[in-house]
C-alpha cells in the first residue's frame, strides 16, 4: 500500500508501483527544486519531501480515485511542469492510522502533506487503531503528531477532503503550517483531481502559493458534477 519515489538522474519508479500505474517513469536530469516561497527558513532544503496520505473505505458507495490522485501529484504534475524535477521526494501511504502517520512523519520529515480521502466536520478520516473503523483526526490531533515528530512548522498542507477548511484554517492560525488548503463543504472527486493537478504543476514550476491556489481552484471550477456542485476551496497562510 506504500509507494516511494525520489526523482534523481538514476532513480526510476519501483516495479511494484509501475505495475499498479502501468505508466513508465521518464528519465530525470539533475537540478534542485527551490521552495523558498513555502519555507520560513532563509535556506530552504534542497529536496522537497512530499507525504501523500490516502484512505478509502469499503462502506462508501462510490469510492474515491485515490490512486489516481496520487498519480496526478507524483507523476502528471511533475512531468508537465517542464523542468527537471530532481530534488523532489515522494512517499505515499494507504491504510493510515495515527500510529502509521506518526512513524512516517518522524522518519520522512516531510515539508508538504497532501491528504486525499474522506473528511467530515470532525476532521480527516483515518483508519481506527483496530483496523475496522474510522478515526477522525482534527487540527489539535495533527498538530500533536507534528510536534511529536519534531516538525515545528509544516511549509504546506493540502487537505483535499470534504469539510476540511476549518481544520486547515485552525492549523495555519495556530502557526503549525505556513500554508494550508481545505474544502468548505463537500468535495467532488473529479474536481479534487483537477485541483491537485493545477496546484502541484504550478508549484513544481516554482509558483508562489497564491498562484498555485488560484490555478488549482480555477481548474477545479471548470467541472461540475451532475448536481451542479462546485468544490469550494479555501487557502490559508500563517500570520
Fold blueprint:
Elements: E1 3-6, H1 15-21, E2 48-55, H2 66-79, E3 88-94, H3 98-108, E4 112-117, E5 119-120, E6 123-127, E7 134-137, H4 139-148, E8 154-160, H5 165-173, E9 177-183, H6 189-203, H7 209-221, E10 233-237
Parallel strand pairs: 2-3, 2-4, 4-8, 8-9
Antiparallel strand pairs: 1-3, 5-6, 6-7, 9-10
Helix pairs in contact: 2-6, 6-7
Give structural attributes.
239 residues; alpha/beta; seven-stranded mixed beta sheet; three-stranded antiparallel beta sheet; 7 helices; 10 strands; 23% strand
Characterize the structure shown.
The structure is a single chain. This protein is of the alpha/beta class. It contains 7 helices and 10 strands. Helix 2 packs parallel to helix 6 and helix 6 runs antiparallel to helix 7. The protein is globular, with a radius of gyration of 17 Å.
What is the total tally of β strands?
A: 10
The low-confidence runs, each spanning 5 or more residues with pLDDT under 50, are 1-37
Topology as a string of helices (H) and strands (E): EHEHEHEEEEHEHEHHE
**Proportion of helical residues:** 25-40%
The Cα radius of gyration reads 17 Å
Please tell me what the overall shape is: globular
Number of helices: 7
Mean pLDDT: 76
Amino acid at each position: 500500500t506504500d509507494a516511494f519515489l525520489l526523482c534523481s538522474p538514476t532513480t526510476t519508479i519501483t516495479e511494484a508501483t509501475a505495475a499498479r500505474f502501468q505508466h513508465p517513469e521518464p528519465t530525470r536530469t539533475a537540478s534542485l527544486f527551490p521552495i523558498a516561497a513555502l519555507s520560513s527558513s532563509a535556506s530552504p532544503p534542497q529536496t522537497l519531501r512530499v507525504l501523500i496520505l490516502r484512505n478509502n473505505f469499503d462502506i462508501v458507495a462510490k469510492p474515491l480515485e485515490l490512486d489516481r490522485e496520487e498519480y496526478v501529484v507524483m507523476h502528471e504534475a511533475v512531468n508537465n511542469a517542464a523542468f527537471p524535477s530532481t530534488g523532489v521526494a515522494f512517499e505515499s501511504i494507504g491504510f493510515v492510522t495515527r500510529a502509521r502517520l506518526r512513524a512516517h512523519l518522524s522518519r520522512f520529515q516531510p515539508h508538504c502533506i497532501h491528504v486525499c480521502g474522506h473528511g467530515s466536520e470532525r476532521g480527516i478520516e483515518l483508519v481506527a487503531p483496530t483496523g475496522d473503523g474510522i478515526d477522525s483526526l482534527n487540527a489539535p490531533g495533527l498538530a500533536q503528531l507534528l510536534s511529536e515528530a519534531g516538525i515545528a512548522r509544516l511549509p504546506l498542507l493540502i487537505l483535499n477532503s470534504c469539510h476540511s477548511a476549518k481544520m486547515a484554517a485552525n492549523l495555519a492560525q495556530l502557526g503549525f503550517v505556513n500554508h494550508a488548503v481545505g474544502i468548505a463543504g463537500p468535495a467532488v472527486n473529479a474536481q479534487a483531481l483537477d485541483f491537485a493537478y493545477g496546484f502541484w504543476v504550478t508549484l513544481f514550476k516554482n509558483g508562489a502559493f497564491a498562484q498555485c491556489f488560484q490555478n488549482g481552484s480555477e481548474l477545479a471550477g471548470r467541472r461540475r458534477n451532475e448536481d451542479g456542485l462546485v468544490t469550494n476551496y479555501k487557502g490559508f497562510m500563517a500570520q
